[in-house]
Structure formats: structure tokens, C-alpha cells
Write a structure and sequence with these properties.
27% strand; alpha+beta; 283 residues
Length: 283
């Protein structure tokens, strides 16, 4: 399901309020995902990766309210793309991964998320990442990010039940690196070996962006393949918390790469880097 890929209406001016609304939509996927969690069965997508009933049920829960929330924006979902139904998106559009971390879901470690990100002019400007197994929601937009506890299907809590988050300043030594639990390649290992990392923490799905956003990590290098819907929501949360996501040569990671099948190249997610750290990371 998607809206027309034609000219987009202006986005809401209050991007944090938009992020809150995205969070409310993401939480709707919690009940069908957790129902399926107890009876996980997997088929294969066209690219050979697993798809569970939870992917499809979560997408069905998300897309109608999302289309109502942002009726003028094209919506690109992972499951649409897997089925060969991806629209060609304009400058402004929505990226949805209804179940990021399918392998984590199948392995039953709880590290899977629901990701919704809004793209404007190639940049992620608002996003929500929901971890239904833990009942934790991260939202970010307009330079503000929050984390909160929300049980699957519940409403977002009032302000007293939320916590503003901010990426920490990247230390010169003793950095904490987040790495993929399922995809740790030789290039990532080489990157880490060249850095002053005191600790390496594996994590699934978009959780790596969120952990950096809330100050529990400093860097997440990714040299293996990802898709735009894998990263947009977490990127938006991290950017709103003061972090950044860049290519290895330091350019911002951009979205809307239709000619590349919406595939990302290599990237590195950072907390708040110092000028010395930027100079160290420069090619």
C-alpha cells in the first residue's frame, strides 16, 4: 500500500510532534508481532532472507494509519519491495521496516524493532524505533529525541513517563562500539582494530543507532549491505540526539537512491564527535 509518488505536500513544521505520531503508529505493530513471536514460522523472500508472519501482520497494522497520518507522502515498506511492489519515491517519502531484525526474531533474542522514518530532501527528519519484546520506544525529530516504555498497543505515556536523550561526546579513548549481531565482517573488524575502542557490544536491528543516541555507545560501523528502510528511523533518532551517520569519506548518508534499489553503501554512525575525532576519521 502506498500513496502516489507525485509531488509531495509540505511536511509538518513541528518534526518532533511528527515523530511522536510515528511512534504511536509503530506501537500498533506490537500486538501482532508478539502474537506471532510464540509461533514463529519462516518462509523465504526472493532474496533468500526469512520472512515471518510477523512481518506481514506488522505491515498490515502500520500502513493504513501511516497513510492517514501522511496522506500526501509515498510510503516504501520492506515487504512491498520484497514483493516487487515498491513505488518510485519523490524527495519526501516514508520508509518502513515493519520487522527489522527478522533473524533476531527467529533466534528469539528480543532484539528486533519496528522502524518508521520520514525522509525530506534525502535526509531523515523524523523517526520512531519500537522494540516490542521489551516495550521500549525511541522517537526523534527536530533536534529532540526521547526514549520511553510503551507496552505493545498502548498509548504513548505523558511527558513525565519519557526521558529526553542525547548522544554523548565521543571520548578520545575508551570508545564503545556497537556492531551487528548477525553481520560482522572483516572490514568492520579492521575498522575496530584501528580505533581506541574499550568495548564492543553486539546488538540487533536498529537498536545500535538508539543505544548511541541515548549515550550508551559511541560508534557503529557498517560495511556490509543494508537497505534504506533498515536505517532511516534509527538515523533520524540519532541525528535528533546530536549524532550523525556518514559514509567512510565523511559525506552524510543520503536517502532516496531509487536507481540503486534503495541500497545503502558503507556507513559509520557516530555520537557527538570532536574535531580531533573528525580529523582522525578523515580519509
Amino acid at each position: 500500500m502506498s500513496t502516489s509518488p507525485g509531488a509531495s505536500a509540505p511536511l509538518p513544521s513541528d518534526l518532533f510532534t511528527l515523530a511522536e505520531a510515528l511512534g504511536s503508529v509503530a506501537v500498533l505493530a506490537g500486538p501482532p508481532i508478539m502474537r506471532a513471536y510464540c509461533r514463529c514460522t519462516a518462509a523465504l523472500k526472493a532474496d533468500g532472507s526469512p520472512v515471518t508472519e510477523a512481518d506481514l501482520a506488522a505491515e498490515a497494522a502500520i500502513l493504513p494509519p501511516l497513510a492517514k497520518l501522511l496522506p500526501h507522502l509515498p510510503i516504501l515498506s520492506e515487504e512491498q519491495a520484497s514483493a516487487g511492489q515498491a513505488p518510485r519515491c519523490a524527495q519526501d517519502f516514508v520508509l518502513v521496516d515493519p520487522l527489522d531484525g527478522t533473524r533476531e526474531f527467529i533466534d528469539r533474542n528480543g532484539e528486533f524493532t519496528v522502524n518508521i522514518g520520514v525522509i525530506a530532501g534525502g535526509n531523515p527528519v523524523a523517526g520512531a524505533v519500537y522494540q516490542p519484546a521489551k516495550g521500549v520506544l525511541w522517537i526523534g525529530g527536530g533536534g529532540r529525541a526521547q526514549v520511553m516504555t510503551v507496552l505493545p498497543g498502548d498509548s504513548l505515556p505523558p511527558p513525565a513517563g519519557r526521558r529526553d536523550i542525547r548522544a554523548r561526546a565521543t571520548p578520545e579513548r575508551g570508545q564503545v562500539a556497537l556492531v551487528s549481531r548477525s553481520h560482522l565482517d572483516a572490514e568492520t573488524k579492521a575498522f575496530l582494530a584501528a580505533r581506541p575502542c574499550a568495548q564492543t557490544l553486539p546488538a540487533g536491528s536498529a537498536l545500535k543507532f538508539c543505544l548511541i543516541a541515548q549515550g550508551d555507545g559511541d560508534v557503529y560501523p557498517r560495511f556490509g549491505p543494508t537497505m534504506e528502510w533498515d536505517t532511516a528511523a534509527g538515523h533520524a533518532v540519532l541525528a535528533s540526539a546530536g549524532g550523525e551517520v556518514v559514509t567512510p569519506d565523511g559525506a552524510p548518508l543520503r536517502y532516496g537512491k531509487a536507481d540503486q534499489g534503495y541500497r545503502n553503501g558503507s556507513f559509520i554512525a557516530w555520537g557527538r564527535r570532536s574535531e580531533a575525532e573528525r580529523a582522525h576519521a578523515a580519509p
